[in-house]
Known about the structure:
Shape of chain A: globular
Strand order of the largest sheet of chain B: 1-9-8-3-4
Number of strands of chain A: 11
Helix content of chain B: under 10%
Distance between the termini of chain A: 37 Å
Number of helices of chain B: 0
Structural class of chain B: mainly beta
Number of strands of chain B: 9
Helix content of chain A: under 10%
Order of helices and strands of chain A: EEEEEEEEEEE
Radius of gyration of chain B: 13 Å
Shape of chain B: globular
Oligomer: heterodimer
Structural class of chain A: mainly beta
Number of helices of chain A: 0
Largest interface: A-B, 22 and 21 residues
Largest sheet of chain B: 5 strands, mixed
Strand content of chain A: over 45%
Distance between the termini of chain B: 38 Å
Amino acid sequence: GAGVSQTPSNKVTEKGKYVELRCDPISGHTALYWYRQSLGQGPEFLIYFQGTGAADDSGLPNDRFFAVRPEGSVSTLKIQRTERGDSAVYLCASSLGGRVFNEQFFGPGTRLTVL
Amino acid sequence: DAKTTQPPSMDCAEGRAANLPCNHSTISGNEYVYWYRQIHSQGPQYIIHGLKNNETNEMASLIITEDRKSSTLILPHATLRDTAVYYCIVYTGKLIFGQGTTLQVKP
């Protein structure tokens, strides 16, 4: 079946611009996660959705970052007033959900470059 | 959060077993150890997890010491496609990735 998909695969923007990154989770997965991965580092947790609500947004670095999942399926990560330090690969993962661990399936990521 | 310590890199000959160590001396009694790997330019992939007993699946084996302060991931017959960064994670409700071990499988 289809895995987690992310669009666009690459995004180049200018400092100060607004960007939206999209994640389509595996059908039926109620949990969705966003991570950010800088070059040479492991993925860094940003936010976790259970259904439509953000169950844990403790990893969002500041208020320029926001994520939504209005219908409990597709999610959009929104970054306002982008900075060069936001350049990274943004990964999305989904799982069957709940606080007990279920395998997280990762998408290929969106590579964001802020010039 | 319980921290993990892994060597930054390891080499393994193709066809031989790859043994990847991980220290997690501050792990709590009900925290699981998870292993993920990330092949270049792909998202991380789940490998295996365990609590206190040794575990085996089609990809790997996980050996956890009796005191649970360390574990070893074993790839029994490494192939070139196993070249990746391997992450050992103590699960505390979310995945906290460290820098992992870069495993290079050589022909």
